[in-house]
């Protein structure tokens, strides 16, 4: 069942675009992923004006950018949503930009830095990286492509000193807004080799700088009646066109190089949020995943940067970040942090955890040993020697979490006998998958 949220917790400018536009066209994509896509597209047009954030009066201003990773199951309409935002909702703004947004899917590190040098010299401008097949990219990436990803992470704040080479002079730059959106089929990133590389990227700085959202399971929505379906889609496109006109008016009001600063109420709330996160960080169990620790360490800063994007859209004539702007940003940041935590549960790092999660996803269902073999938690050659200790780990882990693993004979195909295993909630007997939400989004 689709999770329900109080839409008053998202900014007014976002609400109708989401509820009457994007959610009608893409009802299978959850709120977190939709907001993440909206944010990176909104950030690109706002950062084109090279607006800045001042944390407090007298602080050194920094460029406002936004970076996102969205993992959505295949067939979820990721590309379709991006096109609807760019080609319908924001088309009038994008066509008016001069110079145009420097958009790319990938580049060599040298080519990327050359574009940074050009944008650095422009009064307005930004770089927008949209990589639609991120999972395939990391699976097949060459050293040059890996260098491109590392450059994105290194220069995420729009400033830096490129590495000097003998054949080319590269000067430092500090006025290059870079917005990056990497999206992929969730399962493609969960492939063992890809998952490890993605986790290395997260650990090396991505998790502190990117907002990460993910879906594992997707409920497909449909309308029974053809005419109803057609009318809903027509109304949704009309909504995006009308909201696009309003956004154009808002965008025209935003001043180039404007500096946004929190008022006293907003800064007090931001300080409280930073303090809450640091207290939580200090009290984390020692065994907490390092990636989750790193995300929590910088969560408050991501919220403040998002608050600038929200402020620019909600009151473009006033560069004060209000308490409401901060609260809207905190809601989204917490929503994204929850998605990351769920993804880390979904993407365990060792094979025995993958086995345990497989039982959680199929709770109450008898699973023959031959079916477990086919899941390829380990190679077929090593399965027999691995399985004895692995199933004992699952048994012990289940007991700690309040479950019980039942082992019983199973009549296999062609008259062969074997064993089957069923995970149940202790003291309740057989239960359905809906009774367990530990590994569901």
Total beta strand runs: 12
Structural class determined from secondary elements: alpha/beta
Write down the overall geometry.
globular
Element order, helices and strands? HHEEEHHEHEHHEHHEHEHHEHHEHHEE
The average pLDDT score comes to 88
Biggest pleated sheet: 5 strands, parallel
Uncertain parts: 428-441
Strand proportion, as a percent range, falls in 5-15%
Report the C-alpha radius of gyration, rounded: 24 Å
CATH class of the largest domain: Alpha Beta
Give a written overview of the molecule.
- The chain has 441 residues and is of the alpha/beta class.
- The chain has two domains: 7-262, 3-Layer(aba) Sandwich (Rossmann fold), CATH 3.40.50; 351-435.
- It has helices at 12-25, 31-47, 78-89, 91-96, 109-120, 134-140, 143-154, 186-190, 192-209, 226-253, 264-282, 290-314, 323-346, 351-361, 369-374, 383-400; strands at residues 52-53, 62-63, 67-71, 102-104, 127-131, 178-184, 211-214, 259-262, 320-321, 367-368, 403-411, 417-425.
- α1 packs across α2 and α3 packs across α10.
- The longest helix is centred in the middle third of the chain and has 28 residues, at 226-253.
- Residues 428-441 have low confidence and may be disordered.
């Amino acid at each position: 069942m689709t999770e329900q949220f109080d839409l008053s917790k998202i900014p007014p400018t976002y609400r109708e675009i989401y509820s009457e536009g994007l959610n009608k066209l893409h009802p299978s994509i959850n709120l977190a992923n939709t907001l993440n896509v909206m944010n990176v597209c909104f950030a690109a047009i706002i950062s084109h004006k090279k607006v800045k954030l001042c944390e407090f009066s007298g602080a050194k201003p920094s460029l406002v950018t936004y970076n996102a990773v969205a993992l959505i199951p295949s067939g979820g309409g990721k590309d379709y949503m991006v096109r609807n935002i760019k080609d319908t909702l924001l088309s009038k703004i994008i066509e008016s930009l001069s110079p145009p947004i420097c958009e790319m899917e990938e580049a060599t590190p040298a080519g990327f830095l050359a574009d940074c040098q050009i944008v650095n010299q422009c009064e307005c401008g930004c770089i927008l990286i949209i990589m639609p097949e991120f999972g395939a990219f990391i699976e097949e990436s060459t050293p040059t492509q890996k260098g491109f990803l590392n450059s994105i992470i290194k220069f995420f704040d729009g400033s830096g000193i490129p590495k000097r080479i003998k054949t080319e002079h590269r000067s430092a730059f500090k006025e290059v807004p870079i917005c990056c959106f990497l999206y992929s089929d969730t399962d493609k990133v969960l492939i063992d080799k890809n998952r490890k590389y993605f986790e290395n990227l997260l650990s090396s700085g991505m998790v502190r700088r990117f907002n990460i959202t993910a879906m594992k399971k997707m409920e497909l929505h449909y309308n029974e009646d053809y005419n109803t379906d057609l009318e809903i889609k027509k109304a949704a496109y009309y909504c995006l066109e009308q909201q696009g006109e309003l956004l154009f008016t808002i965008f025209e009001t935003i001043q180039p190089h404007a500096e946004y600063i929190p008022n006293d109420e907003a800064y007090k709330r931001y300080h409280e949020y930073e303090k809450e996160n640091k207290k939580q960080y200090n009290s984390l169990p020692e065994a907490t995943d390092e990636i989750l620790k790193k995300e929590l360490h910088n969560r408050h800063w991501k919220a403040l940067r998002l608050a600038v994007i929200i402020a620019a859209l909600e009151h473009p004539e006033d560069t004060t970040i209000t308490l409401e702007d901060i609260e809207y940003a905190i809601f989204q940041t917490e929503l994204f942090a929850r998605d990351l935590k769920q993804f880390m549960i979904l993407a365990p790092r060792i094979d025995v955890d993958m086995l345990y999660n497989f039982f959680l996803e199929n709770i109450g269902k008898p699973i023959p040993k031959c079916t477990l073999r086919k899941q390829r938690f380990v190679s077929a050659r090593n399965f027999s020697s691995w399985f004895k200790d692995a199933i004992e780990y699952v048994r012990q882990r289940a007991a700690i979490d309040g479950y019980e693993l039942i082992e019983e004979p199973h009549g296999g195909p062609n008259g062969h006998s074997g064993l089957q295993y069923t995970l149940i909630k202790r003291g309740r007997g057989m239960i359905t998958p809906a009774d367990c939400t530990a590994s569901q989004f």
